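Page 42, continued from yesterday. The earlier attempt failed because a stray header line got pasted into the input along with the sequence. Redoing it now with the clean sequence only.
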Amino acid sequence: MNRKSSNFRWVLAAIMFAISFISYMDRVNLSVATPAIMQEFGFNKMHMGALQTAFFVGYAVMQIPGGIMAELFGYRRVVTVAVGFWSIFTSLTAMCNSFTMFAVIRALFGIGEGPLAPCFGQFIYRWFTANEKARGSACFLGGMFVGPVVGPAVTVALMLAFGWRSVFILFGIIGIGLAIAWYYFVTESPRDNQFVTEKEADYIEANLQLTQIKSMAPWRNFITSSQFWAIGIQFFVTDYIMYVFLAWLPLYLMEARNFSLTSMGFAASLPWLALSIITFSTGFMSDKLVSSGLSKTKARTVFGTMGLTICCGALYLGAVAQDSWWNIFWLTLSLGALGFTFNASWAACMDIGGEFSGSVSGWMNFWGNLGGATAPLLTAWIATTYGWQFAILATSALAIIGVGAWLAVKPDVSLICQKGKDKKSLCLAHKAI
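This time it went through. Structure tokens are written below.
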């Protein structure tokens, strides 16, 4: 067998980054195209909020099944099918000519993207050591957050040159190519990969304990754990805030702050740039702290609560700012601070979930995307009824709930060591992780 690289896991991390990048480009494209679509079809804010919600309903529904599929069928096959499926419906968005058609296509697009996060959670657990998991998570999250950095500018340029439909067709084609790349390069086990040396496989698996038989996660144990609920609740809040930015920032800047289409493309990218930078930085800092002996509970909880606290304060200041560019500054700081929380959240999933990281990731992201499903429509209603300033203030207040939930996550305590008849064997298997 030809083995070419001793650090091939980071090549796979780059492919994961690219898939995450495209997945979020596909989402942000609708937000940036919103003014053009509203004008062409006569849609209002409630229509567009409902279309965003249609995506998140489909996406949320597939989170827990996606985690189970990752554990039973393998992340190689599930990610390949998921990326191919959603890319088809991304392209079909260009064919929509009615509200109903938009809603159906966006819901199916969401179903296709649903398994991605839990599959990547399982992949990171399997391919990266305990001291690399936050950096692995940063590659996954960084791809998602770089998408909206370049998305507004790229989408605006394509829209001005070729019309809004061209955006969805192009990114659908790119997605198909990435699905093929994932299937070719990724294997379920590092030892089965032709590009991985024995030395790298030994390094990855040195402290990893895996059962030989694929099995369902101990859901009865999970569902009675306060940690399990806490990690879901905090992510509901975190994702809710992030999806307010994703769904409404472009239109908010144009309606409430009087930005032009071209200046909006630049301004809307700044919060996402800050989020990307802080997400990557947190990955390195968190792994460094854990490898130096700091407990996972302290490392993850400090970052998780710090991100939401800064976000809350900066959102408030952004809402009341009179100057448009000061508003952009505070919004940039607000979304950027969530990078601390996002990285801590995904690393904590692997800390407490172990070999069932796919199921725990799916559960957490399910709650996150209930927040994602709620945010576009609720924010549209608040903005329509009370104005944009009140909508931003309401989003700010929600962060307080997330801070409280983080205190109950306790990443040093494994979920599979909770009470249950299989407690002893599961804890022994998890102890060496």
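Notes: The chain has one domain: 8-431.
Reminder to self: strip header lines before submitting.
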